[in-house]
Design goal:
Helices cover 37% and strands 16% of the residues. By secondary structure, it is α+β, with helices and mostly antiparallel strands. It has 2 domains: 1-59, no CATH class; 68-190, Alpha-Beta Plaits, CATH 3.30.70.3270. The strands form 2 sheets. It has a 3-stranded mixed β-sheet. Strands 2-3-5 form a 3-stranded antiparallel β-sheet. A hairpin with a 6-residue loop joins β2 (96-102) and β3. It is elongated and about 90 Å long.
Length: 191
């Protein structure tokens, strides 16, 4: 009588342990393919599903967002940011700072950012800056491995600038929809 509960719990653990190897043999060579990951992580799956992290990585979903980045226009090679400040006002944690560039001859402000900073240590990855940006200059990236020996989490324009092709690679559906919308507007203007 005594110890029956312990024996039952150990049998459950042993069964899960053995079934994890049975599942590994069943999915041999195709363990982490996208079509098999959903089945292996479902409640109906048997065994333990473990990702050996540095060597094996699960694919990130397209709508995953981590930290913002500035889109660099492929035609001009400059960031799309016009320093309008909408992202600064929309940010709930106020982790974005922009300093507008000035024309050296006249001293009037130009429609570009001289300095652009994001404090990643307080950014909560909400995506409000990307949502409210009128010029599609800010998008949310997939960079989540930020371990570093430096204590500075204040990213400047060099660290934040990424090409439009990076956005097309990590968000293919959103990029295709935006391209179709631009082509539709261009065709409408020609008429």
């Amino acid at each position: 009588m005594y110890g029956l509960g312990i024996a039952k719990s150990l049998s459950v653990t042993l069964r899960r342990f053995v079934m994890s190897y049975v599942e590994d043999i069943r999915y041999l060579g195709k363990r982490y393919r996208p079509e098999n990951i959903a089945a292996r992580q479902s409640p109906k799956s048997k065994g333990i599903f473990t990702v050996q992290y540095p060597k094996e990585r699960l694919p990130l979903p397209e709508n995953f967002r981590m930290f913002p980045f500035q889109v660099v226009d492929p035609e001009t090679g400059n960031p799309r940011c016009t320093a309008c400040g909408i992202c600064v006002r929309a940010c709930p944690t106020q982790c974005i700072w922009i300093k507008r560039a000035a024309d050296p001859e006249t001293g009037k402000p130009k429609r570009e950012a001289a300095e652009f900073y994001v404090d990643v240590s307080i950014c909560m990855s909400c995506g409000m800056c990307a949502e409210f940006c009128s010029f599609d200059a800010i998008k949310m990236g997939h960079d989540y491995e930020l371990a570093d020996f430096k204590r500075s989490f204040l990213w400047d324009m060099d660290q934040l600038s990424k090409p439009l092709s990076y956005h097309a690679e990590i968000h293919p559906t959103e990029y295709a929809a935006a391209q179709a919308e631009r082509e539709r507007k261009a065709a409408k203007k020609k008429k």
